[in-house]
Write a structure and sequence with these properties.
Chain A is mainly alpha-helical. Chain A is 70% helix and 0% strand.
Chain lengths: 202, 202
């Protein structure tokens, strides 16, 4: 790579990081290419070498969240059985959501900008979802007939974990006088119940 | 009620409504008693007759969301069996979340301000949660021993419905190539599975 190319690749990564910081500080609404250039101390035009518009930049920021998320899920300790693997997947999912709330919110709580398809965001989000589908295909099979079942169970597991992550971050959960230990036990309890339900079907 | 009292009660309700509108337009961060007074065309001091601070106002706005939410849940068609009643409760929960996203976000996505306890917000949130607990006590019993089970199952059902509401509003769900009909079927499918699980235990 000659110096110019290296500088360009470096600038792209720096823009993504500066955009993430800007969002963390001021929210998605205030993100702009101008603000990113200001943070990096480069000319107003420089970010346009990599991002056709502010929405392209935002789409690439969210895409990067999905890439990190999928990598984090992929790095789990693999289990022999798909239903055991689902438990690992569930706890990795929750861990990511709680440790990286900004990335999590960008993926699932922010309307994706229009260039989502164009920059590959959709492809990377699909890749993350297909990790969950993979375990369920291991249980239900991979035929066309099994597909609705795989997707319904994927929605069931995803919504449980997604809901739990969101509830844990809510003020409400701390004020409901839950019985001792319930909050700590809830993730494993719920994953166990979901697994029991899946193996009863399988 | 003499005119002054009537005016005062009217002003309180008007402040809550103006606060809700301000939040809808500009977000929670920009809410202030001054902005509410401006919207109502009253003096800057007027809202202080009802709200000691901006945080007291916000706490009362969120409290009102929980009151509306609990009333909406309470108005469901009651079923004979608690497990059937849970399905009604689940679909009312989803309906509220999808039809009134601002109220829903204020209850569960916004950090409660410090006067939450003082203004009765906590009590009203607990009332809403106890509707769910009520059905589960009908299944597991109301003894001290049953309490952790009631609360764990309440967390399981709440997280499923909460997650589903949130997923339905995400951009992600529209891009995952879900099998035909899966999104429409998911709420009933998930509630049925949860009910089957509960009756297998009961």
């Amino acid at each position: 790579m000659d110096n110019t190319k290296e500088d360009l690749a470096g600038l792209k990564a720096a823009c993504l990081e500066a955009a993430r910081e800007s969002i963390a500080e001021h929210g998605v609404e205030r993100l702009s290419l101008r603000e990113v250039a200001r943070r990096l101390g480069v000319s107003h035009q420089a970010p346009y070498k990599h991002f056709a518009s502010r929405d392209h930049l935002l789409a690439e920021v969210i895409r990067k969240c999905f890439q990190d998320f999928a990598r984090f899920l992929d790095n789990r300790e693999r289990q022999q059985n798909p239903d055991q693997d689902l438990s690992c997947l569930g706890s990795r999912y929750l861990q990511f959501a709680l440790e990286r709330p900004l990335e999590y919110r960008l993926m699932f709580g922010t309307p994706w900008p229009e260039p989502a398809e164009e920059v590959g965001l959709v492809k990377d989000a699909l890749h993350a979802f297909n990790i969950l589908r993979g375990d369920l295909k291991g249980i239900h099979g991979d035929s066309a007939d099994a597909q609705p079942k795989v997707d319904l169970d994927a929605m069931m597991i995803w919504s449980s974990m997604h809901g739990l992550a969101s509830i844990f971050q809510s003020s409400a959960v701390r004020h409901l006088d839950l019985a001792n230990g319930v909050q700590a036990q809830a993730p494993a309890y719920i994953m166990d119940r979901l697994r029991a339900m899946l193996s009863a079907q399988g």
